[in-house]
Amino acid sequence: MAKYSRLHGSVGLISLANPPVNALSSVVRHAISEKVAKAFRDPEVTCVVICGENGVFCGGADIREFASTMRGPPLVPMIDAIEEGEKPVVAAIEGVAFGGGLELALGCHYRIAHYKARVGLPEVTLGLLPAAGGTQRLPRLTGVAPALQLITTGRHVAAPEALKLGIVDQVTEQNTVEVAVQFAKSVVGQALHNRRLSLRQLSCPPDGLFEETMAQIKQRARGAVAPIACVQAVKAAATLPFKAGMDKERDLMATLFNSGQAKALQYSFFAQRSVAKWNLPNGAHSGISKARAVHRAAVIGLGTMGRGIVVSLVRAGISVIAMETNEKQLHTGKKMVIAILEKDAQKHNAAPRADLVHFTERLSDLSNVDLVIEAVYEDMVLKKDIFKQLSMICKPDAFLCTNTSALNVDELAAVTGRPEMVVGMHFFAPAHVMKLLEVVYGQHSSPEAVATAMQLGKRLGKVSVAVGNCPGFVGNRMMKLYVEQAHFLLEEGATPEQVDEALEEFGFAMGIFKVSDLSGLDVGWRVRKEAGLTGAGVDWKEPPRRRQGRRYSPLADLLCEKGHLGQKTSRGWYLYEKPGGRDPKPDQGLHSFLVEYRSKYGLKARRIDKDEVLERCLFSLINEGFCILDDGIASGPEDVDVIYVHGYGWPRHRGGPMFYADMVGLSKVLERLEFYHQAHPDVPYLKPSPLLRKLVRNGSPPIREWREFLKRPHSHL
Ligand SMILES: CCCCCCC/C=C/C(=O)SCCNC(=O)CCNC(=O)[C@H](O)C(C)(C)COP(=O)(O)OP(=O)(O)OC[C@H]1O[C@@H](n2cnc3c(N)ncnc32)[C@H](O)[C@@H]1OP(=O)(O)O
């Protein structure tokens, strides 16, 4: 777990050996303590180098250990012992030195980094703080302001910047361990006093730094507590002697360590990694499915989605044919794609990559690409026509993907002569910014097609989740019910401001009505028309607030009919100062409209409290999550949670909807859903899902055990 050898007779080399990232699990800590003591004891050894095997210094403390009682030697005395040693200790940093890994390096007297290495204290992203002296040593090394920024954001710093900040002493393009060994030999005999960071004096931080940072964090963190504790710990470094600062660091860590937020964030970390190991109901899985390389891709449609997808592909170095039949749209799309790529180039001080895109109006130009992503608007007839043509034009082994957000992938696959090559690649707007990608497998999608889309997603820097084919897939299927509940709450007496305030207090970046104004009310209107819920396809024999046999709120349709489409028309659920305005203001006109609406339909407004807003909106979403798991559309709760955190603004420190259900308690969720279903029998989806009932019947097992209660995948392979 840590190997020891002697080099050149006098250099003690300690190599951390705990693949894949040399995390500091208890055996590793034990081994480091032992080997350091051995090197310090050995009279032949004059200096020590600490490195990591397999090109990685250290990924930090072993996060998996946090869930159980911590055993083995603690990090703090181990790092103190290194710093206090009388022989120079040099950290040779390759790959990463994160968290406890960097704290270990800060206890060494010198740090040499490979030029491609990255360092950082990302504990805050796990709901923690760097509690192995990081909050006290880093400010003494870099000054308070840079340390505060790094510790409160968890930002990763590339070696050249780390050198500028003083975090490392030297950056090398050569073999880092060899350079560190030579360096260690060269400093033997030099005084170590001023290399011990715990002994350094801190210069005064700029006035108001902590107050300003705290204010920014409170605005940005949406209720997350770890960044606040990080500020308090760094403030202790700036105001107290080292030892007292360490005590403060330890006490603050104790408040975070067992918090629900830390558990949620650590769950999120592993959930994000688990979705990469996808498996399908037919038994295919990532372990046995090989992806094909994509060298040339095509995007059809240069609306908002298409443009973002083109930019993402180009950023990943893939050559793209961008096809659009509408001349005006082609022109605008081209201008916007090039503008984004030029801005990228300016930012990175590099040449724009526009040469990778070829714009065209002709579908026939797509004959030689490896993969096509269709991103035209949501019209099944149009999409089918495109897929039929693609099936004839594209080379036989080209993958045909659709960016549909809700339509049936199997229906599209059926019009092609190669249904096994068809998958959904559902990007989220703006596609060059949003991290999430739903990879939708159809009935006939081959494992190779799914693997290729997942791999491509990874290459584009997306968090990709493989999901089954059903209306709305995972994200939008759940979202629909959440939006509907929000509209029902307005009918019953709430205002958009009240609903949004409750959701934002919960931690969403934006309340649902602000989101709707931002994306445009016409988006949902089009979907509802397509589904026959409004417009020409409606069965008008039903009462006005019932459609297709259940409760329906026409509120959003009525706003659309008035032309109130959100930000772009300056009115929607809120009022904006001008079309395209961003700053929502309560709209008295909308409030009067709600009063008239209620009176027209004989609805009596009542006071609705925040708990009801949250339960109605979130528990209906969670209930649908259980249905999705039961249907096998998502393979585990982590998939649902990753989708909500990365695509729908669910606060990361609350883990995701399924994790939240586990935290709240499954019996409570069940009981509240039963209550609301009884109160609203005309809303079928409030009826608790059979899976939720099954879990409660089985004693509400923790989320990590839920997969055992899902229908087992069966192999058709
Ligand atoms: C009272 C207690 C006091 C304790 C004081 C503690 C103070 C210190 C705290 C910490 O150090 S917290 C940890 C801080 N470190 C991090 O947050 C780093 C997390 N890891 C990463 O960012 C990345 O994994 C990586 C290191 C950059 C590598 O990325 P890469 O893309 O190459 O691989 P991944 O797929 O992400 O990871 C591979 C594999 O390794 C697992 N893993 C990664 N880091 C850790 C870790 N720190 N602990 C445990 N496991 C880790 C990861 O889950 C993957 O596992 P599998 O999915 O393959 O099983």
From TrEMBL:
<dbReference type="InterPro" id="IPR006176">
    <property type="entry name" value="3-OHacyl-CoA_DH_NAD-bd"/>
</dbReference>
<comment type="similarity">
    <text>In the N-terminal section; belongs to the enoyl-CoA hydratase/isomerase family.</text>
</comment>
<dbReference type="GO" id="GO:0006635">
    <property type="term" value="P:fatty acid beta-oxidation"/>
</dbReference>
<comment type="subunit">
    <text>Monomer.</text>
</comment>
<feature type="domain" description="3-hydroxyacyl-CoA dehydrogenase C-terminal">
    <location>
        <begin position="472"/>
        <end position="576"/>
    </location>
</feature>
<keyword id="KW-0456">Lyase</keyword>
<comment type="pathway">
    <text>Lipid metabolism; fatty acid beta-oxidation.</text>
</comment>
<dbReference type="InterPro" id="IPR008927">
    <property type="entry name" value="6-PGluconate_DH-like_C_sf"/>
</dbReference>
<dbReference type="InterPro" id="IPR029045">
    <property type="entry name" value="ClpP/crotonase-like_dom_sf"/>
</dbReference>
<dbReference type="Pfam" id="PF02737">
    <property type="entry name" value="3HCDH_N"/>
</dbReference>
<keyword id="KW-0576">Peroxisome</keyword>
<dbReference type="GO" id="GO:0003857">
    <property type="term" value="F:(3S)-3-hydroxyacyl-CoA dehydrogenase (NAD+) activity"/>
</dbReference>
<dbReference type="InterPro" id="IPR001753">
    <property type="entry name" value="Enoyl-CoA_hydra/iso"/>
</dbReference>
<dbReference type="GO" id="GO:0004165">
    <property type="term" value="F:delta(3)-delta(2)-enoyl-CoA isomerase activity"/>
</dbReference>
<protein>
    <recommendedName>
        <fullName>Peroxisomal bifunctional enzyme</fullName>
        <ecNumber>1.1.1.35</ecNumber>
        <ecNumber>4.2.1.17</ecNumber>
        <ecNumber>5.3.3.8</ecNumber>
    </recommendedName>
</protein>
<dbReference type="GO" id="GO:0005777">
    <property type="term" value="C:peroxisome"/>
</dbReference>
<keyword id="KW-0560">Oxidoreductase</keyword>
<dbReference type="GO" id="GO:0070403">
    <property type="term" value="F:NAD+ binding"/>
</dbReference>
<dbReference type="InterPro" id="IPR018376">
    <property type="entry name" value="Enoyl-CoA_hyd/isom_CS"/>
</dbReference>
<dbReference type="Pfam" id="PF00378">
    <property type="entry name" value="ECH_1"/>
</dbReference>
<keyword id="KW-0511">Multifunctional enzyme</keyword>
<dbReference type="Pfam" id="PF00725">
    <property type="entry name" value="3HCDH"/>
</dbReference>
<keyword id="KW-0413">Isomerase</keyword>
<dbReference type="InterPro" id="IPR036291">
    <property type="entry name" value="NAD(P)-bd_dom_sf"/>
</dbReference>
<dbReference type="GO" id="GO:0004300">
    <property type="term" value="F:enoyl-CoA hydratase activity"/>
</dbReference>
<keyword id="KW-0276">Fatty acid metabolism</keyword>
<feature type="domain" description="3-hydroxyacyl-CoA dehydrogenase NAD binding">
    <location>
        <begin position="297"/>
        <end position="469"/>
    </location>
</feature>
<comment type="similarity">
    <text>Belongs to the enoyl-CoA hydratase/isomerase family.</text>
</comment>
<keyword id="KW-0520">NAD</keyword>
<keyword id="KW-0443">Lipid metabolism</keyword>
<dbReference type="InterPro" id="IPR006108">
    <property type="entry name" value="3HC_DH_C"/>
</dbReference>
<feature type="domain" description="3-hydroxyacyl-CoA dehydrogenase C-terminal">
    <location>
        <begin position="613"/>
        <end position="702"/>
    </location>
</feature>
